[in-house]
Design goal:
DUF2489, transmembrane, transmembrane helix, about 85% helix, about 160 residues, membrane
Length: about 160
């Protein structure tokens, strides 16, 4: 009977060792997978940071051009809205700079580029008048938003570049 217990114990030990080895391999794979996920997350954060720095530098250029009247408010707000919407690490900027987004939302349906060239002169003048009315109504608020946005973008670029 003692031979039976020796064999049973030996088989039990082999099974336990096999299971322990398998558990160790699973833990090793889990550790490796976790490391890869962390590296992917860091790489994604770096890519978002790089994208945001580039977009914010463009925002600074556009706001400066708007302040120096080298870019009209309609075009500037259009470009700024698109850039701000593309930021990965910032959100709810439409609430921080409402006049910029309001102008964009009021003119985004108007024709641009080739579509504008295809319009009849009367229709083009009608759209220009509509654009000028909205610009005129929102001008003081946009000037404030542009100044605040320039300061915000400068601070964000500085902060993202230093981290």
């Amino acid at each position: 009977m003692s031979l039976f217990w020796i064999i049973a114990t030996s088989i039990g030990v082999v099974i336990i060792l096999a299971l322990a080895f398998y558990a160790g391999r699973l833990l090793q794979q889990l550790s490796l997978q976790t490391k890869r996920q962390q590296q992917a997350e860091i790489a994604q954060q770096q890519a978002h940071k790089s994208h945001d720095v580039k977009a914010l530098k463009s925002v600074i250029i556009i706001t400066r051009a708007m302040q120096e009247e080298q870019c009209d408010f309609s075009e500037g707000c259009w470009r700024l809205s698109v850039l701000l919407d593309s930021l990965k690490l910032s959100s709810q900027l439409d609430q921080q700079f409402p006049a910029i987004f309001e102008l964009y939302n009021e003119i985004k349906h108007l024709s641009i580029l080739e579509d504008r060239k295809q319009l009849a002169k009367k229709q083009r003048m009608k759209e220009d008048f509509q654009r000028m009315q909205v610009e005129s109504r929102l001008r003081p608020a946009i000037e404030t938003d542009v100044e605040n946005l320039k300061q915000f973008a400068d601070e964000q670029v500085q902060q993202l570049s230093s981290s």
